[in-house]
Amino acid sequence: MPTIRILVFVKNAGVKLNKYTLFTPGPTDIPPDVLKVLSKPIFYHREENFAKLLKEVTDALGKILSSSGKIYFFTSSGTGAMEAACTNILSSKDKPVVALCGKFGQRWLELCKAYRIKPIVIKEDYGKAISPDKIEKVLKKRKSPTVLFTTLTETSTGVLNDIKAFGKITKKFNAYLVVDGVAGIGADRCYQDEWNIDILVGASQKALMSPPGISFISVSKRALKKIQTSTLPKYYFDLNIYEKFREKAQTPWTPAINVLVGLARGLKIILKRGIEKNFLYHQRLGDHTRQRVQKMGLEIMPSRPSNALTVVKMPEDIGATRIIKRVKEKYGILFADGQAELKNRIIRIGHMGNYSIRKMDRALDALAEVLNQWRR
User: Fold this and answer.
1) Residues bearing N6-(pyridoxal phosphate)lysine (predicted)?
2) Structural domain ending residue among the three candidates 237, 271, 305
């Protein structure tokens, strides 16, 4: 007689719920208003309710991005939207330029290589912003219009690049500018039309105060014409398919509906505060955080810091990893470690979205206390 196994499922067995607050550079802490709407019943994505939702999110994003372009939504992380930008604007014989200063800028290079495209690379040392002069020198040598891939806010180092200057240069040489704005949108100034950005990439989980799951690209009219000539293979991210559904305020594939509901609420919070006031709000958070960190005797890594996060160099005799672990265990506050070669060398403190001076002080007091314990 065969053995019958009876499986008993105990509610929450073995599951440890988070008992800490995120001060990471994405995902970020979510406002109560957004959490509340996330629990609402789901609705069908081919109904008028969804079309109304998508129009609302599209209109709000257009205002925040200062964009007259077309916006397309994907059920993916920000990397998915980066791939969508890459595979839709490039053709197999293109020779794009990738300007990078960190791990996420490196992702543009990896995406190009995945499609067997060999770009020209402009690389700055980690912690330094990309030099506009270097971009101009490279584009000046190009005989035909090219595509420049770069990053607004480099999350791995906290650097804010001068996209406005890049846009002037790409316009001068008739090049296309594609920007990863995932970490910066909503925290750092970024004006798509004014700065001549052809494709701007974003996602839900950072300064837009929503859970992960939705990414998007905002595409200029000029870029849409080039997209029609793209020869790279694509299916899930094919904007020709997305455009047919965009006209009906739909998406071709099943979207993360409740994440879009949360995103709509997060965008409402920003618009209610005011777009310019929102930038100043993040600037104050960033300035305050960096001043407090420097008073602890620590060094800020980036030469041109973002409003979205603060990246702190840690002394070699202390290291970042154990400090992060101790702050989480003792105070219920989670910072982020460095990535790749910066692992254990830096602490990344997120302050984009649902944060305040008081909230940052609570986290920074905890960091200072743990550092003092290690220094004794």
Assistant:
1) 206
2) 271
257 in any annotated domain: yes
100 phi/psi in degrees, rounded to 5: -135, 155
Q: Is residue 292 part of a domain?
A: yes
Q: Do 299 and 260 belong together in one domain?
A: no
CATH number for position 217: 3.40.640.10
Does one domain contain both 52 and 108?
yes
Q: Is position 290 annotated in a ligand binding site?
A: no
Omega within 30 of 0 (cis) for the link into 27: yes
Residue 20's φ and ψ, nearest 5 degrees, are -145, 165
Beta strand 176-180 with 147-151: parallel, antiparallel or unpaired? parallel
pLDDT exceeds cutoff 90 at 14: no
Amino acid sitting at position 29: D
pLDDT in tens, 65-76: 999 999 999 999
Residue 5 maps to a domain: no
pLDDT at 283 over 90: yes
Instruction: Please indicate, yes or no, whether residues 144 and 75 belong to a single structural domain of this protein.
Output: yes
Banded pLDDT at 305 (limits 50, 70, 90):
very high
| CA-to-CA separations, 224 to 59, 71, 305, in angstroms, rounded | 19, 11, 32
Q: Is the model's pLDDT at 2 over the cut of 80?
A: no
- Same domain membership, residue 233 and residue 351: no
Instruction: Assess contact for 121 and 98: CB atoms under 8 A.
Output: yes
Asked if 65 contacts 218 with a C-beta cutoff of 8 angstroms, the reply is yes
